[in-house]
Amino acid sequence: MIHDFGIVWDQRGLLMSGLANTALLSVIAAVVSLLLGSALTPAMMSRRRAVAGAARAFVDAMRCIPFLLFAYIVYYGLPSLGINFDNWSAGLAALMLYNTAYMAEILRGAWAAMPREPIEAGTAFGFSGVRLFRRIVLPGLVLSAGPVVGNQLIQIIKDSAFLTIIALPELTHAASSIQSRYYVPFAAFITAVALYWGLCLVVEGGVNVLRRLADARR
Amino acid sequence: MNALPHPVLNVVGVSKSFGAVEVLSDISFQVGKGETVCVLGPSGSGKSTLLRCINWLEKPDAGHVYLNGEPVGVTSAGVVMNDRRLSQIRTRIGMVFQHFALWPHLTVLQNLIEAPLQVQRRPRAEIHEEALALLAKVGLHDKRDAFPARLSGGQKQRVGIARALAMRPDLLLFDEPTSALDPELVGEVLVVMRDLAHEGMTMVIVTHEMTFAREAATRVLFLDRGRMVETGTPDQFFSRPATERARQFLQRYAAEAVTAQR
């Protein structure tokens, strides 16, 4: 068994590049889906029924598809419609689109739950437009939605493991290729689990900082 | 009522409906410099809506509002102002809210500094110094680094008043400032408001505190079902109300006060 872990240690370069790719994929997907989600949120809250309905339909549809199936559709399905991706673009696109729905729903919930009066006070004190959003609305939104967005980032990290099926060289793919080459399944997969765990701890640490800031203000 | 020569606030024929319900009907009044005007009336009489029409948190359907002779919300030519222009005018009208409406992500001191710094763009050192003096004035100097969530209702409302004063407003609006407070915390807020009245701050106060209105107001407006039924000095209004509706209103309050004392 020690010997197995020795083999994994020898292949640490491969695992580390897998870990780096997983982190890169997750962070890019999280940032882009948060941006796209915050653009989708006002659409979901629109007074025009067609706009709100279309946004709601997208969000609900996304949230009800298993991510693995969605990744299959993007990578294997879309080319038959004439849309071709390499595995990196397909993986990233799948992660981003899928999580845009979640981020939009998270932000919509946080926004709807925000008390109106402080925002109205902002207006009464001369804030308007972008300045009102940036100084009064956004800080509250970050504090209340921050922990949930952090949890979603953990979800993205775990979902990114599915992208091994389209041969994206992320962490699960790295572990899988080490075990198939040297027949050390336990050592390879446990090491990958430990690395996922470490990555999530980093995210969790960031979330806890936000949570402490929010608790002091609640 | 005689027209004042240079009123701080001039409300002319303001009307407002929500759907088919007319909440305010052709309200006109003026407030002179240093006056404390209390707006009284039963619940649902349109008092709060009237206050919110003054700084255009509610857009009046008809009528005009002038602050120191300058139109608020619509220009003299009848064109609705852009947000930027309206915001500039709003910085000169302080507002104190029923549920405090402090900014929860900022400390007490930051709540006072935020708008003068970000909107009025006055020098930081000056704002800071004034904010500390205002906190001392409302008795909360030691709470300057606390977040609003850690304060009692009375303390929150005193911060709310200090925040409004930090803008150096020409006019201060109070929207039922003690209605959300536990009875034992009402006094500490009224003390601050009474001091402001004595110092000659120009104020319009929507309130149910009859004793306060009687003692501190220079003038009382009585609203009922969206109409201004009566206006006069507190002495006139409370001792010799001119209308039947005002008499009924005051009787009901007197009865409640007796019940409360028992």
Automatic annotation (TrEMBL), chain A:
CDD domains for this protein: TM_PBP2
UniProt GO MF annotations: transmembrane transporter activity
ABC transmembrane type-1 domain location: 19-203
Transmembrane domains' residue ranges: 23-45, 57-78, 90-111, 132-154, 186-210
Pfam families: BPD_transp_1
The UniProt record lists the keyword Acetylation: no
One record GO biological process: amino acid transport
Keyword field: Amino-acid transport, Cell membrane, Membrane, Transmembrane, Transmembrane helix, Transport
CC per GO annotation: ATP-binding cassette (ABC) transporter complex
Subcellular localization: Cell inner membrane; Cell membrane
Membrane topology listed for this record: Multi-pass membrane protein
InterPro entries: AA_ABC_transptr_permease_3TM, ArtM/GltK/GlnP/TcyL/YhdX-like, MetI-like, MetI-like_sf
Family recorded in the similarity comment: Belongs to the binding-protein-dependent transport system permease family. HisMQ subfamily.
Cited NCBIfam families: HEQRo_perm_3TM (TIGR01726)
PANTHER family in alphabetical order: L-CYSTINE TRANSPORT SYSTEM PERMEASE PROTEIN TCYL, MEMBRANE COMPONENT OF AMINO ACID ABC TRANSPORTER
Protein name (record): ABC transporter permease
Native species: Reyranella soli
UniProtKB/TrEMBL annotation, chain B:
Membrane protein topology class: Peripheral membrane protein
GO cellular component, one term: plasma membrane
Matches recorded under SUPFAM superfamilies: P-loop containing nucleoside triphosphate hydrolases
Coiled coil: none
Alphabetized InterPro entries for the sequence: AAA+_ATPase, ABC_ATPase_HisP-typ, ABC_transporter-like_ATP-bd, ABC_transporter-like_CS, MetN_ABC_transporter-like, P-loop_NTPase
Highest taxon of source: Bacteria
UniProt cross-references to Pfam families, sorted A to Z: ABC_tran
An MF annotation (GO) of this entry: ATP hydrolysis activity
Ranges where the ABC transporter domain occurs: 9-250
The entry's keywords: Amino-acid transport, ATP-binding, Cell membrane, Membrane, Nucleotide-binding, Transport
Localisation per UniProt entry: Cell membrane
Record keyword Membrane present: yes
Family: Belongs to the ABC transporter superfamily.
Designated name of the protein: Arginine ABC transporter ATP-binding protein
Organism annotation: Reyranella soli
Source taxonomy: Bacteria, Pseudomonadati, Pseudomonadota, Alphaproteobacteria, Hyphomicrobiales
